[in-house]
């Protein structure tokens, strides 16, 4: 039987390209010395409007998550209708802080490559303890958001980036 977490989603090439860009941004974050997370904010017609990567180390601020930055960008630049019709593609499932910011500014769908549950498993396999914030699923923070993920065909790339980042510490 297939569980919800192993459900395979289908995306067109444009959406897969946005997801691959998230993976590339996560790799860029490692090159800069930050944790491997990247996100892209996409309009209803499929146009990438803004992107960011994690900057927690280089920005000396552990709240500099790309999903949080994109929520703020959306609040500053998009109408409420544009936000609701937009999609945030992201390498890793939103943390509770970012889920809340996403919902507070009225953004729409989220597509993530790797789930928070997967990240916790990978980090625990490296002997790394729990984060200071519980890894609650997006739906527990923002029940009105349409959420899709994980994306099996890209998940292992994100796993590899987390292993690479930890190997550099
Ligand atoms: Zn976050």
Automatic annotation (TrEMBL):
Q: Where is the CMP/dCMP-type deaminase domain?
A: 13-133
Q: From the UniProt record, which GO molecular function terms apply?
A: catalytic activity
Q: What is this protein called?
A: tRNA-specific adenosine deaminase
Species the sequence originates in: Acrocarpospora corrugata
């Amino acid at each position: 039987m297939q569980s919800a977490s192993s459900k395979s989603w289908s995306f067109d090439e444009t959406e897969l390209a946005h997801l691959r860009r998230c993976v590339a941004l996560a790799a860029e974050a490692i090159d800069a010395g930050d944790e491997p997370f990247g996100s892209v904010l996409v309009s209803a017609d499929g146009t990438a409007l803004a992107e960011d990567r994690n900057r927690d180390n280089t920005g000396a601020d552990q709240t500099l998550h790309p999903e949080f930055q994109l929520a703020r960008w959306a609040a500053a630049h998009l109408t409420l209708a544009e936000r609701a019709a937009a999609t945030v593609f992201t390498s890793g499932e939103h943390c509770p802080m970012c889920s809340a910011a996403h919902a507070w500014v009225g953004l729409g769908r989220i597509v993530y490559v790797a789930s928070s549950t997967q990240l916790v498993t990978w980090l625990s396999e490296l002997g790394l303890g729990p984060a200071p914030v519980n890894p609650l699923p997006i739906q527990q923070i923002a029940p009105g958001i349409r959420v899709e993920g994980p994306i099996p065909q890209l998940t292992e790339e994100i796993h590899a980036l987390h292993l690479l980042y930890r190997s550099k510490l």
